[in-house]
Design brief:
Distance between the termini: 57 Å
Number of strands: 13
Order of helices and strands: EEEEEEHEEEEEEHE
Structural class: alpha+beta
Shape: elongated
Strand order of the largest sheet: 11-12-7-13
CATH architecture of the largest domain: Alpha-Beta Complex
CATH superfamily of the largest domain: Ribosomal protein L6
CATH class of the largest domain: Alpha Beta
Helix content: 10-25%
Strand content: 25-35%
Amino acid sequence: MSRIGKKPVNIKDVTVTQTGNEIKVKGKLGELVTVLHENLSVVIEGEELVVHRPNDRKENKALHGLGRALVQNMVVGVTEGYSKTLDIVGVGYRADMKGKNLLLIIGYSHPIYFMPPEEITIECPTTTQIKISGVDKVLVGMVAAKIRSFRKPEPYKGKGIKYSDEIIQRKAGKTAGK
């Protein structure tokens, strides 16, 4: 049996509503909805939610762990939320908030304005740091990856936008070999 799939999800602080395969989780930070695969079934037992699969076929085993992880991520999202921090490295590179939009000056001939989705909150604690937060783990990750894609960190000087916990593998330049 799937090690992750067989673990129950603690739903003590949230309200879970099930309609067929649609799971709706509501907590103090918001509400999330997902549709699980038709092969999976969900049983709510007191303060725990358990995901079951019909048989041990390979696809159902994979879906079992995935379905449980999706529900767990929704529960954590509506109770605690998710956040990612990006660092901007480079001389003259900076970020600033203009209303709800993010203004990036990262070495191009023009500034870049990024309009985040409604569910995402972006903050700039310093001019070289961007904090992205929200209740949906996937959406937070996608927005962080999109902002990072505007100027990925390069391996020679390390300039660009990187995750705060990312380690850039540095390369030696041409003159280092002489």
